[in-house]
Every structure is written in structure tokens, then in C-alpha cells.
Amino acid sequence: MATAWWIVLIIVALLAGVALGFFIARKYMMNYLKENPPINEQMIRMLMMQMGMKPSQKKINQMMSQMNRMNDK
């Protein structure tokens, strides 16, 4: 009978650990994305202007598609 309690305790502890790990990882990723947002068109436009380039919508769309292709790989 004591062995059954140990098995139940181990299973409960494992499930609690998985649930706790999930919520900690979720919180970490939400904070990371808040501090480091993904690159968008506005950021590309600002970066090109800082480099002295005149950003056209065509160039911005090309860079966005390149970034998306790199993220898919």
C-alpha cells in the first residue's frame, strides 16, 4: 500500500512540475517579446533612414519578405 502512495506522489509531482514549467516559460517569453519586439516595417524604415537610405515601400516589402524567409528556415 505504501508503494502505491509513492507512485501517486511521483505522478502528482511530475504533473505539477510540468504545469509550473509551462507557466514560467510562458511568462519569460512574454517578457522577452515585450522587451525585444520582432522587427516590423516601421523599424526597417527607421533603420534605413539612419543609414542614409531613402526607404521606398518596395524596398521595405523586399526586406520584410527576406526576413520572413530567413525565419521560416
Summarize the structure.
The chain is mostly helical and 73 residues long.
Description:
The model has no long low-confidence stretch (mean pLDDT 90). The chain is built from three helices and no strands. The termini are far apart. 82% of the residues lie in helices and 0% in strands. The protein folds into two domains: 1-37; 39-73. By secondary structure, it is mostly helical. The protein has helices at 2-35, 41-50, 57-72.
List keywords for this structure.
73 residues; mainly alpha; 2 domains; 3 helices; rod-shaped
Work out the helix count. Answer: 3
Overall structural domain count: 2
Which ranges are low-confidence, i.e. pLDDT below 50, for 5 or more consecutive residues? none
What's the alpha carbon Rg, rounded to whole Å? 23 Å
Q: SSE string, helix = H, strand = E?
A: HHH
Give the number of DSSP strands: 0
Distance between the termini: 53 Å
Main sheet attributes: strand count, strand direction, barrel closure: none
Question: What characteristic shape results from the CA principal axes?
Answer: rod-shaped
**What proportion of the residues is helical, as a percent range?**
over 70%
Write down the overall mean pLDDT.
Answer: 90
Structural class: mainly alpha
Assess the beta-strand content as a share of residues.
under 5%
